[in-house]
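PT: before anyone asks, these are the final sequences, not the draft ones from last week. 489 residues across everything. Please model them as a single complex and drop the result in this thread when it's through.
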Amino acid sequence: MSAKKPTKQSFEASLKRLEEIVESLEGGDIPLDQALGLYEEGLELSKQCNEKLKATELRLKKLSKTVDGQFELEDLDP
Amino acid sequence: MFDLQQIPRRVLSISELTQIIKQSLESSFPLIWVQGEISNCRKHSSGHYYFTLKDEGAQLSAVMWRSRAEGLLFTPEDGIKVQARGALTVYPPRGNYQIDVLRLLPVGVGELQQAFEALKQKLQAEGLFDPSRKRPIPRFPDRIGIITSPTGAALQDIRSVLSRRFPSLNVVVVPVRVQGVGAAEEIARAVEDVNRYGELDCVILARGGGSLEDLWAFNEEVVARAIFASEIPVISAVGHEIDFSIADFTADLRAPTPSSSAELVAPDRAEIIDILRNSSYTMRQRLADRIAQMRQRVEHLVLSYSFNRPKDLLVQYSQRVDELEKSLASASFRLFEKVQKRFLSLQQQLNALGPRNVLRRGYAMIQRDNRTITRAVQLKQGDETEIHFFDGAVPARIQRNERKETDETVL
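LR: through. Structure below.
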């Protein structure tokens, strides 16, 4: 497993990756520079997840189909 | 109005007769309720239902126009016992009468329950409820689909729970009708759509409480098939806690109510905060450990025998060089002494052997033409020689050579 730049991904994926990183660091058999990379990635993921926790308003959308059979999200009428 | 008394008096056309029957029948029967079993049921492409209501002794044609059928709570099928409310009408082209059904209800829970049990057994046998094929519900979903009525209480319940528990969620509502004819198909299509859309972590199928008839759409096979085929985990939340639907059995998770489906699906905020906090701590700690460990290793290496060995070796070698230098000096001195001693002794020997020293001891040397004569045979009569003594030489002539053999010459 290599350290990679965290991209914007789902909460589930972020947390899973974070758990992986912690596990790798706990294993202790990866080179130090790689461990540093993982640490940085982990901090970034942790920050992203924390950001998400700060949201206060539930976002509701409506799934609609366009004429060509594609999907789009619209605001849900209250 | 025809005068019924007048009828036998003249010949009527079929149309006239039928018209009389129609007026008579339709006016004498107000809206009625009838009960019977559906048979020969067919749905016309126009949306109208045509079927026969029958019991042991009689049968009655029935029609349910599309506008009425849209309010149906279930799909009319052969064999279902129903109560129908409607008006009797005569259809002159066919010369028959029929009931124009305004409302159709399955008779009692018994009938629906029977259909429910039959479908349940069938789908169970096919493995649709098999626990081993249930997809796990993601622990931390962030995009949740809700297939439900956009105006129903179920959506409001779910919404308020999610807002309270985990407002960072993205919720995508797929509006459907949750009861009436066609609702089941709509729900099934919504499940398929959600899968084609693909960008959801799980989907909730929700409807608030109601009678078995109200919830019937969730007991239809088409819904069960769609849930079974779904790639996205499906949580069913239909009716109240005591209501079990075919959708519940097929879904990956059954929530007793819409509200509880939201509880089940919303990630636990406290758990996440815990994970984040622990992760940060553990990562920092492990990294610090790691660095400490490295530092210790470096220190250990600096002090280690191997690391210091070159230095030791250097000291050792220089010591050895010193030693060698010293022994070299003493060895050469001894060698010099030895050589010198030998030289002196040789010199002495040489001196002892030198001819002058020999002559001094009383020996004489005979030479002829400046060559030393070492043997008696070299001399013959008349040879002119010189006899060299220590202090000088005298000439001498050999008068005779009568050689006498000595022991030495024999040897």
